[in-house]
UniProtKB/TrEMBL annotation:
It is a multi-pass membrane protein. The chain crosses the membrane at residues 9-26, 38-62, 83-108, 146-165, 172-193, 213-240, 252-275, 305-326, 346-366, 386-403, 423-444. It is found in: Membrane. This is Transporter. Signal peptide: none annotated. Pfam families: SNF. SUPFAM superfamilies: SNF-like. Belongs to the sodium:neurotransmitter symporter (SNF) (TC 2.A.22) family. Keywords: Membrane, Symport, Transmembrane, Transmembrane helix, Transport. InterPro entries: Na/ntran_symport, SNS_sf, YocR/YhdH-like. NCBIfam families: Na_transp. The keyword Cell inner membrane does not apply.
C-alpha cells in the first residue's frame, strides 16, 4: 500500500526537509532573543543531544516497524507488545498537534511569501531599521493580505500531500536545501563584515545562566522537539517509508546535525544585524527575522536578488515541513479506506486553515494587544511545550521499556553494538527523566 523511499539518502532528504523550516530560521532566533541568548542556546543543544536525537531514533523505528500512519503503527506495535490500546493515543495526539502547528505555521510561511513579493518588486531596498519595523507592523495590520498568503501557502501544501509525499519531496530537499544553506552563508559573511558580529557571537555563546528562567528551559526543550519535527508522528510517518536496510542511527544523527547547523547559522546571520542597529531588540519577538534581514539585504550588493531568493527558499523550506504536519493525518484517513488521498488531505488542510484564520484575526503576533485572543501564542505553547514533549516522553518510554529488545535491535538495523546500549540507556532513563523534570519544574514555577 505504501511507497518506499528509493534509498537511505531519500529518507535523509525527506526528514531534513521536514526538520529544516521556519523553526530554524524564524523561531530559533526569536525565542533565543526572548530568553536571553547563551544559556538558552546551551540548554537547547543539550536537549537536542540527550532528548531530540535519541527520541527521533525511537520514533523512526516505531514507524519502520508499523509501516503505516502513526495511529496505525502505534496500534500495531502496541498489539505486538501485548499492551492496552491506549498507547494509540500518541498517534491521535500527533495528528491533532500537526493541525494545530500547521494553523500558525502556514500564516508565518505566508509572511515569507509576502516578503518574496516585496523583495522582488524592490520594496525592501535600502530600508532603515525603523522603516523595516514599520513595514512589518503595517503588514500585520493588513488582514486581507495576511489571509491571501496564508491561503496560498495552505494550497501549496495541500497539493504536495494530495499527490503523495514520496513523489513530491525528493527534489525540493535535494536541490533547494543546499541553496538555502548557501544564501544563509552569504548572510553570515555579511554579518561578519558589516554587522556587529562579536556582539552577536557573545550573545549566542556566552552562557549567562541568570538570564534563563525555568520556563525558558521548557521553551528550549520544546523547541528541540519542534525543530526536529518530533513527538507528533511526523518522523514516524516518514520512517514508515524507510527502506528495509538502512542504518537508523547514522541517518538520524545526520538529520539532527544539519538541522542544528541551519539554526545556529541563522542566529549568527540575524543577530549581527540586530546589534548593529540601535533600534532593534533581540527580544522583539516573532517579527525579528522579518525586520532585521531586510536591512541587511538592503545594503548588500545585489541585495534584491538575494532577498528574493532567501525568502523564497524560506517558504520552500516551510513547505517541505508543512507537508509532514499534514501527512500523519492524511495517511491515517487513507488507511481507513473511507477517503481517497486528495479529499482526506483537503479536509485536514481546511481544518488547519481555519485555525490560521483565527491566528490572523486575533492579530496578536507582537503581544501588544492585551485584550487579544492570543491564538497564535496558545497554539504554539500547547504544541511545543506540552503536546510534543509528552508525545516524545511516551515514545521514549514505549521503545525503551515496552518494545521487545530483539525488535528494537532489528529495526535499528544495529546488531549488537556498544553504542546501541548507550542509546538504549538514554532512551530509557535520560530522555524521559529530562522531559518529566523540566515539565514539572516549570509547571511548579508557574504555580508558585
Ligand atoms: N521542524 C519544523 C521546523 O523546524 O520548522 C516544524 C515542524 C514540522 C514541527 C513538522 C513538527 C512537525 F511535525
Ligand atoms: Na527545524
Amino acid at each position: 500500500m505504501h511507497g518506499v523511499w528509493g534509498n537511505r539518502w531519500t529518507f535523509i532528504l525527506a526528514a531534513t526537509g521536514s526538520a529544516v523550516g521556519l523553526g530554524n530560521i524564524w523561531k530559533f532566533p526569536y525565542i533565543t532573543g526572548e530568553n536571553g541568548g547563551g544559556a538558552f542556546v546551551l540548554v537547547y543543544l543539550v536537549c537536542i543531544a540527550l532528548v531530540g536525537i535519541p527520541v527521533m531514533m525511537a520514533e523512526v523505528l516505531i514507524g519502520r516497524r508499523g509501516r503505516m500512519s502513526p495511529i496505525n503503527s502505534m496500534r500495531y506495535v502496541t498489539r505486538e507488545a501485548g499492551l492496552h490500546g491506549a498507547w494509540t493515543a500518541i498517534g491521535w495526539m500527533g495528528v491533532v498537534a500537526g493541525l494545530m502547528i500547521m494553523a500558525f505555521y502556514s500564516v508565518v510561511a505566508g509572511w515569507a511569501l509576502n516578503y518574496v513579493l516585496l523583495a522582488a518588486t524592490g520594496q525592501l531596498s535600502s530600508l532603515s531599521g525603523a522603516a523595516a519595523g514599520e513595514l512589518f507592523g503595517g503588514f500585520l495590520g493588513d488582514t486581507n493580505r495576511l489571509l491571501v498568503f496564508h491561503s496560498l501557502f495552505s494550497l501549496l501544501t495541500f497539493a504536495v500531500v494530495a499527490a503523495g509525499v514520496t513523489r513530491g519531496l525528493g527534489m525540493v530537499a535535494r536541490i533547494l536545501m543546499p541553496f538555502l544553506f548557501a544564501v544563509l552563508l552569504v548572510l553570515l559573511v555579511y554579518g561578519v563584515v558589516e554587522g556587529n558580529f562579536s556582539a552577536a557571537f557573545g550573545f549566542l555563546f556566552d552562557f549567562k545562566f541568570d538570564k534563563l528562567s525555568m520556563s525558558g528551559v521548557l521553551v528550549a526543550l520544546g523547541h528541540a522537539f519542534f525543530t526536529l519535527s518530533l513527538g507528533m508522528g511526523a518522523i514516524m510517518a516518514y520512517g514508515a517509508y524507510m527502506p528495509e536496510h538502512a542504518n537508523v542511527s547514522r541517518t538520524i544523527i545526520t538529520v539532527g546535525v544539519l538541522d542544528t547547523a541551519v539554526a545556529l547559522i541563522a542566529g549568527l546571520a540575524i543577530f549581527p544585524v540586530v546589534f548593529a542597529n540601535p533600534g532593534m531588540e533581540p527580544g522583539s519577538g516573532p517579527g525579528l527575522m522579518f525586520v532585521s534581514l531586510p536591512v541587511a539585504f538592503g545594503s548588500m550588493p545585489a541585495g534584491e536578488i538575494f532577498a528574493t531568493l532567501f525568502f523564497l527558499l524560506v517558504a520552500v523550506a516551510a513547505w517541505s515541513s508543512a507537508v509532514s504536519l499534514i501527512e500523519p493525518g492524511a495517511a491515517w484517513l487513507v488507511e481507513t479506506g473511507k477517503l481517497k488521498r486528495a479529499p482526506a488531505t483537503f479536509l485536514l488542510t481546511l481544518v488547519a486553515w481555519c485555525g490560521g484564520v483565527g491566528c490572523v484575526l486575533s492579530n496578536n503576533w507582537l503581544g501588544d494587544n492585551p485584550d487579544g485572543l492570543h491564538i497564535f501564542e496558545s497554539l504554539d505553547f500547547l504544541t511545543s511545550q506540552i503536546m510534543l514533549p509528552l508525545g516524545g516522553l511516551f515514545i521514549a518510554i514505549f521503545v525503551g521499556w515496552l518494545m521487545r529488545r530483539a525488535i528494537v535491535v532489528s529495526e535499528m538495523d544495529a546488531e549488537e553494538h556498544p553504542l546501541f546500549d548507550i542509546w538504549l540507556f538514554i532512551v530509557r532513563f535520560v530522555s524521559p527523566a529530562l522531559v518529566a523534570v523540566v515539565m514539572i519544574a516549570s509547571l511548579y514555577d508557574k504555580l508558585v
